[in-house]
Amino acid sequence: MSAEHDALRLALGGYVLGTLPPAEAERVRVHLAECADCRAEHARLAGLPALLATVTEAEASGQTVPTADEELADRLVARAAESAQGSPLERPAVPAAPAAPAVPEVSAGGVLERLLQRAAARHRRRVRLQLAGAAASLTFVAAAVGGTWLAAVGSVSSQANPPGPTAPTASRTFSGSDSATGVSASVKVWPSSWGSVLQVSARGAPAGITCRLQAVGPGGVRTDGATWRAGQYPRGTTVPGAVAMSPGAIDHFEILAGDGRKLVTVQA
């Protein structure tokens, strides 16, 4: 593979977190349309914004350190191990999906670590704190196989998950629909010290397709906020997400199909 390809591959982490300059983000977007390997890598990383929402504000600022029994990485690894052994997880029933190939374990010098190191080196302390939260979740993402696809693309929950460390905080809900696609959606947004916490509900997309929510900001800058597989879920089911973009900077949201087709626009 060329040096240019490797550079674009390493930029995927910043692309997912929305921290790339617009020109570089556009190059990555064009490359993803042409490279199946990088699209697969992007799919594995797409859940990181949602996982960032599990890091408390106090933990991110260094004011507190999680206790041993609440350590994020330990919790995620434990859940991944349960899934690998076939133990049931407490989560809503999800539609059957084709088994996904196992995601290889990431070594200390693996592409994900290099990716995060590069992004961390380029941005200021606030973004580095976000990446630290994402790094704590990488073991779980790397361990996800087959039936644990929800971990890699953002857990689907039947309960609201507002940002605990700052609750109660003011939230706003935005809704939209598209008569051509038949898809409707609402996005609930909470402010956070590092961006925005999201809660997404959507219906009307063909069952089984992968859906991706993007927040669109000034100058058309796009940030992936959540990814999930469409299907028949219990009433009230929501998808948690997060973006490194303040609520006031978000112009609108778009939900895209896996092939890039726009399903619905939600104005903010």
TrEMBL record:
Q: Which UniProt keywords apply?
A: Membrane, Transcription, Transcription regulation, Transmembrane, Transmembrane helix
Regions of biased composition (Polar residues) lie at 168-178
Pfam families from the xrefs?
Answer: zf-HC2 (PF13490)
Q: Is Transcription regulation among this UniProt entry's keywords?
A: yes
Instruction: Report the InterPro entries cross-referenced here.
Output: Anti_sigma_zinc_sf, Znf_put
Instruction: Show the segment(s) annotated as Disordered.
Output: 158-178
Give yes or no: UniProt keyword Transit peptide: no
Q: Where are the transmembrane segments?
A: 131-152
Putative zinc-finger domain location: 9-39
Q: What is this protein called?
A: Putative zinc-finger domain-containing protein
